[in-house]
């Protein structure tokens, strides 16, 4: 019986719990029996006897869970095999970092969707997991449903990865591809994206390339480039004019926010992308191109965010922990 | 007309007016001077000064030009065609005019081995930011990288947003 604790019960936490419920039968066949033994949000929790449906209903109706016990104590006091961590992103790690460390120290595996802890202390967390003989899985932190981390670790295990270039922020890609289509100024398309719920009221985190840079750091560390967030040369998309797309198009290019890591480069910046290039994708899609020595170029694309997409990446991590090894 | 870029090295006597004797025939034949480099430290044993001149000219006129330089007494040490084989485009956004676009563009010239070969500026409002796509050609990828690096540096200084391509062969 795999005992799962979930900390952070917002879009992603609930999405993962729902997916566990919906795929219960297949998970049982492919991985084994499981049980969610505890759930916590920022102020409350539930443990002991409860069902996933009941917890989700409670959270949605009352905005909280049954008990006052905090996530911290829950992790200390409840026995579980896997911690699913889906709390808010804080680039200094925030409480997510301390939850993950606690869980690893206890000897449980961790699946996280939260970039913060990995950006803050990738090396430290991996070393700790290894020392404890447990897994720290983080597919959902980069590119949502688009397979990146396990692709690197498994399929490209024996490749030298010369460069990774990707579109890692759906909000920016939406804005740029809409500017390309409509010839409208940045502000106008930003408003549209905000109305559609694609961009936040304060879009800084996305449009200044901070989110993409955080993901780039996770990819960089995964391919063995020891890099910190501050090392990323970062330029956002705010200054791009509608004319930029016209003049670029005359030369056969469009513009996308590209995150790139190679031996010489670590940067997130708007780049000219040939119109026929696979990275010239549209909408909120994410895409990544790997350049390798033996496998040539590998290209993947997929939805970079969303409740189910993110949950599906986390479920693939669960599979990996128990089956692939 | 097939225009080519030529680097010509001549040895001039170190007194006024000598350089003009070379430049005039080039312009007369429709050539465009791209760069002149005096190698001041490198005087020849005969006290002559090597000067490297890059210019663009119709390929058909090269032989005739060199012939006429020689017959007018100029010591031509060498001449050869520089092939600008590597090309890329970059996009610039910002106050390009206020920050002297021609100075920005000239910064990439590397002795005639890298240069801006085409530029298209779009300026919707006088006071607003303008956008330009600049095509750079260079004699090989290394030179092209150097030129792009120079441009990146000057754009950083002038607070111009520079958007580079993701082409495989570059940077
Ligand atoms: N949404 C996506 O599509 C997506 C995709 C990939 C990755 N992610 C990442 O996944 C994480 C969760 O995203 P989300 O969209 O689910 O965010 P969300 O809806 O805002 O949910 C965040 C959850 O974390 C809880 N929380 C915050 N601080 C906490 C603390 N100190 N201790 C315990 N719980 C705490 C919140 O509690 P309350 O409910 O009490 O406020 C909430 O339940 C983020 O790091 C995000 O970057 C999201």
Average pLDDT figure of chain B: 88
Task: Assign the CATH architecture of the largest domain in chain A.
Answer: 3-Layer(aba) Sandwich
Q: Name the shape of chain A in a single word.
A: globular
Q: In terms of structural class, how would the helical and strand content of chain B be classed?
A: alpha+beta
Unreliable runs of chain B: none
Order of strands, main sheet of chain A, comes to 3-2-1-4-5-6
Amino- and carboxy-terminal Cα gap of chain A = 18 Å
Name the CATH superfamily assignment of the largest domain in chain B.
ACT domain
Q: What is the CATH T-level topology of the largest domain in chain B?
A: Alpha-Beta Plaits
Oligomer: heterodimer
Quick one: CATH class of the largest domain in chain A?
Alpha Beta
> Might you state the CATH topology name of the largest domain in chain A?
Rossmann fold
CATH architecture of the largest domain in chain B: 2-Layer Sandwich
Please tell me the overall pLDDT of chain A: 96
The CATH homologous superfamily of the largest domain in chain A corresponds to NAD(P)-binding Rossmann-like Domain
- Rounded to an integer in angstroms, the radius of gyration calculated over CA atoms of chain A is 20 Å
- Relative helix content of chain A: 40-55%
In sequence order, what are the helices and strands of chain A, one letter per element? EHHEEHHEHEHEHEHHHHEHEEEEH
Indicate the overall shape of chain B. elongated
Cα distance spanning the termini of chain B: 32 Å
């Amino acid at each position: 019986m795999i005992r799962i604790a979930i900390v952070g019960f917002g879009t992603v936490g609930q999405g993962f719990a729902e997916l566990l419920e919906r795929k219960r039968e297949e998970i049982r066949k492919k991985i084994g029996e499981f049980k969610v033994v505890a759930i916590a949000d920022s102020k409350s929790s539930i443990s002991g006897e409860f069902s996933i449906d009941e917890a989700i209903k409670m959270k949605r109706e009352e905005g909280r869970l049954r008990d006052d016990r905090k996530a911290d104590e829950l992790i200390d006091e409840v026995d579980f095999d896997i911690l699913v961590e889906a709390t808010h992103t804080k680039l200094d790690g925030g409480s997510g970092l301390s939850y993950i460390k606690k869980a690893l120290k206890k000897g449980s595996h961790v699946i996280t969707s939260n970039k913060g802890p990995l950006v803050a202390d990738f090396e430290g967390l991996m070393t700790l997991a290894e020392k404890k003989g447990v897994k720290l899985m983080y597919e959902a932190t980069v590119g949502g449903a688009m397979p990146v981390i396990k692709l690197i670790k498994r399929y490209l295990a024996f490749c030298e990865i010369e460069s990774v270039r990707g579109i890692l922020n759906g909000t920016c890609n939406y804005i740029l591809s809409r500017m390309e289509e409509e010839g409208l100024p940045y502000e106008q398309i930003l408003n549209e994206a905000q109305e559609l719920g694609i961009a936040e009221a304060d879009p800084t985190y996305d449009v200044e390339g901070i989110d993409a840079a955080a993901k780039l750091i996770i990819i960089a560390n995964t391919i063995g480039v020891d890099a910190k967030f501050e090392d990323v040369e970062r330029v956002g998309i705010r200054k791009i004019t509608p004319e930029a797309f016209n003049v670029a198009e005359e030369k056969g290019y469009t513009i996308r926010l590209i995150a790139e890591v190679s031996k010489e480069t670590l940067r997130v910046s708007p780049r000219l992308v040939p119109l026929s290039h696979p990275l010239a994708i549209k909408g909120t899609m994410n895409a990544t191109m790997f350049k390798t020595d033996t496998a040539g170029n590998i290209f993947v694309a997929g939805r970079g965010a969303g409740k189910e997409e993110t949950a599906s990446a986390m479920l693939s991590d669960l599979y990996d922990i128990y089956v692939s090894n | 007309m097939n225009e080519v870029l030529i680097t010509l090295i001549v040895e001039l006597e170190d007194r006024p007016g000598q350089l003009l004797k070379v430049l005039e025939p080039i312009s007369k034949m429709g050539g465009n001077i791209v760069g002149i480099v005096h190698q001041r430290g490198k005087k020849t044993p005969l006290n002559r000064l090597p000067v490297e001149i890059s210019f663009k000219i119709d390929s058909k006129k090269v032989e005739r030009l060199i012939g006429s330089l020689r017959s007018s007494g100029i010591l031509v040490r060498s001449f050869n065609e520089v092939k600008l084989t590597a090309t890329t485009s970059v996009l610039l956004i910002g106050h390009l005019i206020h920050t002297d676009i021609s100075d920005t563009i000239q910064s990439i010239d590397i002795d005639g081995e890298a240069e801006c070969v085409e530029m298209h500026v779009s300026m919707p409002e006088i006071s607003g930011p303008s956008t330009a796509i600049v095509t750079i050609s260079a004699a090989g990828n290394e030179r092209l990288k150097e030129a792009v690096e120079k441009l990146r540096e000057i754009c950083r200084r002038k607070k111009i947003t520079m958007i580079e391509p993701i082409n495989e062969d570059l940077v």
